[in-house]
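This part of the workshop introduces the protein records we will be handling. As an example, a complete record with its sequence and its structure tokens follows.
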Amino acid sequence: MTVLTIVGAVLAAAIAIILILAAMKPDTFVVQRSTLINAPADKIYPLINDYKNWASWSPYEKIDPAMKRTYSGAPSGKGSVYEWTGNKNIGSGRMEILDTSPSRIDIKLDFLAPFEAHNKAEFTMKPEGGATDVTWTMRGPIPYKFKIMHVIMNMDKMVGGQFAEGLANMKAVAERK
């Protein structure tokens, strides 16, 4: 056996293992983070329900300061739309608030570039004495090609860290008001 044959066999085995591990991954994902904010829900709700307020807390707003933003539909709440186009780190996409109440906001989240993905995001606000427990959740399908990426990278850690950062920013903004 030549060295080239051995290297080829090892490479083929590694690829086969990655493909098998990808096939064993779940068909959906959920990323969720929570924080306790020392403010009532009615002070937190407008930070989420009006996309123009996201610049004050969303970690994604700072990734590309030159990002182009478009707001359409309702000014806030159900039917409000936020579209963005940015650099390779932020890509492009669209969010639309599908439903809203003082304790929950449901969002349709469509990524268009650098890859296409269609997910749901939700924010829930639960009173805890004079504070509010805020939870940010994103869920969606995982097509097979993305399952391959999930073998190598941990989406929960990557996106979850950004959610935790956003909630910490939201806490600072809400508690300052």
